[in-house]
TrEMBL record:
Domain of life of the organism encoding this protein: Bacteria
InterPro entries associated with the record: CE1759_FMN_reduct (IPR023932), Flavoprotein-like_sf (IPR029039), FMN_Rdtase-like_dom (IPR005025), NAD(P)H-dep_FMN_reductase (IPR051814)
Keyword terms, alphabetized: Flavoprotein, FMN, Oxidoreductase
Protein name per UniProt: FMN reductase
Keyword Ligase: no
Any Pfam family the entry gives: FMN_red
Ranges where the NADPH-dependent FMN reductase-like domain occurs: 6-155
UniProt keyword Electron transport present: no
Enzyme class at the top of the EC tree: oxidoreductase
Listed EC numbers: 1.5.1.-
MF terms (GO), sorted A to Z: oxidoreductase activity
Length: 205
């Protein structure tokens, strides 16, 4: 089988985290959907709470530490992206925003992306459409049609809301897998292939 890489960005704060739980379920469903299409998958999980101080330093200095640089590279080099945030004040949280703020310009352009969020109540579900999806539209990522929101009531065992969450996870994962499987594997960019011209460096541009 061919192999693709899926980067999973989880911006959960607590441990254990419902955001990470949702991220893991989306990743597992995507791996399964890709396997059905004859594609093997490597999953790279990026837990943003582990990079909180590094993200603040990057925002202040403009330079990522090696650990954060590796996480940024994993996201930009992946064939597909799953991005999951908790909902704070009807939007994504600060860690989530900072991570995507410090990415290089256009590094997610055309990237197949699945967006998801968690919240204390289903009333926050519209945050995906009025906050998270516009963020990735600005980054020019290719966001799949189905977004996935989960509230505490969605995690019941075997009840109707839990079944609905399972269905949404499967549908979104299938959409992401369909796009990723149809594309050639992403190749990591080599910065030495197209070095910045010396004249441009002198001009500071």
């Amino acid at each position: 089988m061919t192999t693709r890489t899926i980067a999973v960005v989880s911006a959960g704060i607590s441990v254990p985290s419902s955001t990470r739980l949702l991220a893991d379920r989306l990743a597992a469903a995507t791996v399964s959907a890709l396997r059905e299409r004859g594609v093997d998958t490597k999953v790279d999980v990026i837990e943003l709470r582990d990079h909180g101080h590094e993200l603040v330093d990057n925002v202040l200095t403009g330079f990522p530490r090696p650990e954060l640089q590796a996480a940024l590279k994993a996201a930009t080099d992946a064939d597909g992206l799953i991005a999951v945030t908790p909902t704070f004040s009807a939007s994504y949280n600060g860690l989530f925003k900072m991570f995507f703020d410090v990415l290089e310009s256009d590094s997610l352009a055309g990237k197949p992306t699945l967006i998801a969020a968690t919240g204390g109540t289903g009333r926050h579900s519209l945050a995906l459409e009025h906050a998270v999806r516009p963020l990735f539209a600005f980054l020019r990522a290719m966001v799949v049609p189905t977004s996935v929101f989960s509230a505490p009531e969605d995690w019941g065992a075997g009840d109707r809301t839990a079944q609905s969450l399972d269905q949404r996870i499967a549908r979104a994962a299938g959409e992401l897998a369909e796009i990723v499987a149809a594309r050639p594997a992403q190749k990591a960019a080599d910065p030495f292939l197209e070095p910045t011209p010396f004249e441009q460096l002198l001009n500071g541009s």
